[in-house]
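Technical annex, item 7. During the second reporting period the consortium partners agreed on a shared format for inverse folding records so that results from different sites could be compared directly. Each record opens with the tokenized structure and is followed by the designed sequence. A conforming record, contributed by the partner at site C, is shown below for reference.
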């Protein structure tokens, strides 16, 4: 006996956008499609200072100095 799967009456689609300046244009275009009831955009969760620091460490955006004097020399002081 074959299994029959019913088609859901509604669903969602997730679109990831690199350039947020295009968000409004993309939302307008999606609203024009037949069957689209609503278009919502989710805001990115803002990272805490600690989370940003840990991301900097993970991605190698950290400089190490042997001493405070070396740090000040690197800063041009």
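Designed sequence (site C submission):
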């Amino acid at each position: 006996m074959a299994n029959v799967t019913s088609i859901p009456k509604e669903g969602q689609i997730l679109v990831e956008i690199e350039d947020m300046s295009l968000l409004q244009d993309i939302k307008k275009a999606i609203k024009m499609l037949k069957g689209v009831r609503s278009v919502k955009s989710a805001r990115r969760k803002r990272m805490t200072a600690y989370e940003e620091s840990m991301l900097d460490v993970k991605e190698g955006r950290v400089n190490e100095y042997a001493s405070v004097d070396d740090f000040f020399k690197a800063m041009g002081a």
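The helical segments are 23-31, 49-58, 68-75. Residues 26 and 32 are 10 Å apart (CA to CA). All partners now use this format for quarterly exchanges.
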